Amino acid sequence: MDGTLEDLLSFKEFPLMNEASGSGSAQININSPQRSFLSPDEPSSSADQDGSPTGTTTAKPGGSIFSLEYYQQFFNVDTMIVVDRIATSMIPKRAPVNYLKLNIATNPDLYGPIWIVLTLIFTIAISGNMASYLQNTGNHQWRYNFHLVSYSATAIITYALLVPAALWAFLQWSVRGTELNMEEDEEEQVEIEPTTPSLLSLVCVYGYSLAIYIPVSVLWTIQVSLFQWLLVITGAFLSGFALLTILMPAVRKSRYSILIVLAIELAHFALAAGFMLYFFHAPDVETPAEVAPSLHKVTTSVVVNATMHSKSA
After folding, report:
1. Cα–Cα distance, 275 to 155 (Å, whole number)
2. Contact, 255 vs 174, CB < 8 A?
3. Helices (H) and strands (E) in the chain, counts
4. Domain regions of the chain by residue span
5. Theoretical Cys-Cys bridge with 108: which of 152, 162, 200, 297, CB 3.0 to 4.6 Å?
6. Binning pLDDT at 50, 70 and 90, where does residue 51 land?
7. What is the C-alpha separation between 311 and 168, in angstroms, rounded?
8. Is-above-0.85 flag for pTM?
């Protein structure tokens, strides 16, 4: 070991190369015993036959559906993306024309929709019980209705899954499968496969469209019927118009685009109206209808008693 260190630290004289040409430059060949540098033209020993290196691993979104790696692709978003998609689902005309194709289709996520659905379920259940408490002020027998959680969960999850699935199936069936390009001299039929949004993209868009009902459900606890209906119209219009703006490039390709537009808006309005009427709207008090039978019974008993007295006399 000492001899090796002395050899490395000692000065050596290197022979001059190319003395015949008159060049006095010395060339030193330094080869490290631990590293070897390969030129770009030489194949790497760590590379496969197809040219892909074996030392580096690339993350693939595929895999078994029973593994966690398969579901990581559905949660590959950050806070800024989620906030931007929530704002786009509430503000009409905020989304560009190709928002569905460039932003949603390239990276559809379930992180935002799942959190929005879960938050909306508990917000509606809690706010619905608050509205029921305000409607029964003074009633000491009032109790919290835990069934509202299951009712709201059934309605919201059904809407968030079945409506996008029905829209996806209808678009697959109704979108024009072929487009004919007729040339002037030659008659050729060129078949162009239309691009329709995937089912995951539609579930993502519909999940974000429910975000507006979280603050609206809190305001529905105000027991003013006109104000509640204004919230229904405002929430359904803003969210429905933003939803339609995002889906319009795909809806235009259908032969029944007008019917699809009407169905999307009616379903969104029906959801908002159903939330308000079932969970928050105060039922009409039917005191006159309840008093009338009692008065009829009292009048009948008085007449019967008077008749019996007259017969006995």
Report:
1. 9
2. yes
3. 11, 0
4. 68-181+196-280
5. 200
6. very low
7. 80
8. no
